[in-house]
């Protein structure tokens, strides 16, 4: 009789451990899924930020080139005693 009670107790303990293990595994899977979703969102946000920064840099570079061309035409016009339009056409 003791063996049957002892075996039942061991079986009950094993089942409760198995249930604990299963719920722990499910919780871990959910945490991993959540972490992956957060990582994807962060990567997407970082990509958008990089795209925005690249566009800003490109625009600033274009403005700098235009400014340099204007300054060069102005300097050439002054040195050659001509209008800026004539200097820019050269």
Descriptive overview:
- With 90 residues, this protein is an all-alpha fold.
- It has one domain.
- It is built from two helices and no strands.
- It is rod-shaped, with a radius of gyration of 37 Å.
- The relative contact order is 0.05.
Round the Cα radius of gyration to an integer and report it. 37 Å
Shape: rod-shaped
What is the percent of helical residues? over 70%
Biggest sheet architecture: none
Low-pLDDT runs: none
| Number of domain units | 1
How are helices and strands ordered from N to C? HH
Secondary structure: number of strands: 0
Structural class: mainly alpha
Set out the fold topology:
Layout: H1 2-80, H2 84-89
Brief descriptors of the model:
0% strand; mainly alpha; 90 residues; single chain; 2 helices; rod-shaped
Write a compact overview of the structure shown.
The protein is mainly alpha-helical and 90 residues long.
């Amino acid at each position: 009789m003791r063996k049957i009670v002892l075996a039942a107790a061991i079986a009950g303990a094993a089942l409760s451990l198995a249930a604990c293990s299963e719920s722990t595994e499910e919780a871990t899977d959910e945490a991993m899924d959540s972490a992956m979703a957060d990582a994807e969102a962060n990567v997407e946000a970082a990509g958008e930020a990089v795209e925005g920064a690249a566009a800003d840099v490109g625009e600033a570079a274009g403005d700098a080139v235009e400014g340099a061309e204007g300054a060069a035409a102005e300097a050439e016009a002054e040195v050659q005693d001509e209008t800026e339009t004539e200097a820019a056409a050269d």
